[in-house]
Amino acid sequence: MQTWSSTPLPSVPGSGPPLRLFDTATGEIRPTTPGATARMYVCGITPYDATHLGHAATYLAFDLVNRVWRDSGHDVLYVQNVTDIDEPLLERAQRDQDDWVVLGMRETALFREDMESLRVLPPQHYIGAVEAMSEISELVAKLLASGAAYRIDDPEYPDVYFDSAATREFGYESGYDEQTMRTLSAERGGDPQRPGKRNPVDALLWRMAREGEPSWDSELGQGRPGWHVECTAIALNRLGSQIDVQGGGSDLIFPHHEFGAAHAEASTGVHPFARHYCHAGMIALDGEKMSKSKGNLVFVSKLRADGVDPAAVRLALLAGHWRSDRSWETELLRDAEARLASWREAANLDAGPPAEDTVLRLRTHLADDLDSPKALAAVDAWAREARERRGRDEQAPALIRTAVDALLGVAL
Fold first, then answer.
1. Residue pair 410/315 in contact by the 8 Å Cβ criterion
2. Which of 96, 168, 322, 396 qualifies as a FRET site for 373, CA 20 to 30 Å off?
3. What is the C-alpha radius of gyration for the chain, rounded to an integer number of angstroms?
4. At how many degrees (to 10) do helices 372-387 and 310-318 cross?
């Protein structure tokens, strides 16, 4: 699947401290420890609707991870999927009397446009589940053969499930108790009430073909994969048995990332699958949770169509800490537009106050669990002094433009 176009990434003189991130599995902010190449997998969209601000906030958070690593001298191997076959996509296509393939392609194309407009650095591998079908079924067959998976005792639909007891560490990523797991499984696409499962939370690996549903040939029989194993197969085959960061929204902690890790570890024997499990906060609208069912989503494409500068959208979302649940309000966007205008005015003056300390603070704040609010405040302080003409360093504006572009992804 085609990814989106990248933007040039300028080099900033000097260097900052190593990146530290909050890890859901340990509940601690810990240093990331990548080798020469940092390996990151971020779960992609299910393309049955346009990119909303919750999506955007998540991908901007991991774009900062990408940028900070690169600024520290690492190469970054970044992989993202597209869940272009799943129940929500089929249900939306049926509701709208649309072709599910066309719907998925259309919304994926719009997502790429949105990411490009927000200057999110693209993944090197952007993989749809449909194009990875053979590698997904191969992983399911391996899990089945090893005893980590089983077929349910249903003569009509002997679907394949993962046995959550297959790894001794199951549950370490989320830290949830059994009742919480059951509740979230029911809310987030699982089927804990299905008879015949060894454990109610066991996750679907391969759904045998049903009449009227798309399906694919495999050694498992005609069918299609479950959600979690799709990401696991795509990640393992491009990033290897252990990665540095597994990323997504906080709604993916369980069951998606818990089972993704368990699938990988049962397959490879390597624990943990990810050294850091990182989860972005949710975005509300005027204090109310944003959701498709409530019809209160704010779409990036709609803001762009209304003439909003994507750089202002980016700054508005970076004004909140990446792990915090926060609200999108009109005032937030207005503040971001004013901030953008202030920075651009200051960064295009003939001279300004020395900028080396500002760049160091920018780097230091981002390296400290992506503290973007403090990073923005550091640039605010420099811009205020520059606009008040408190400085004669002719190189400072160019240094600020370079650093803000490279580290925050905002072109001034």
1. yes
2. 396
3. 22
4. 120
Contact between residue 186 and residue 143 where contact means Cβ atoms under 8 Å apart? no
Q: Judging by beta carbons within 10 Å of its beta carbon (0-12, 13-18, 19+), is residue 330 exposed, middle or buried?
A: exposed
Phi, psi of 328, deg, nearest 5: -95, 120
CB-neighbour burial class of residue 307 (10 A; exposed 0-12, middle 13-18, buried 19+): exposed
pLDDT over 90 for what percent of the chain? 96
- Put the strands of the sheet holding 149-151 in their side by side order: 149-151, 160-162, 204-208, 223-225
pLDDT digits (tens, 9 = 90+) for 120-163: 999 999 999 999 999 999 999 999 999 999 999 999 999 999 99
**Distance between CA 340 and CA 351 in Å, rounded?**
18
d(CA 37, CA 17): 17
The angle at the Cα of 400, spanning 54 to 366, to the nearest 5 degrees, equals 45
Other C-beta atoms closer than 10 Å to the C-beta of 14 total 11
Could you tell me which residues are beta bridge partners of residue 208? 223
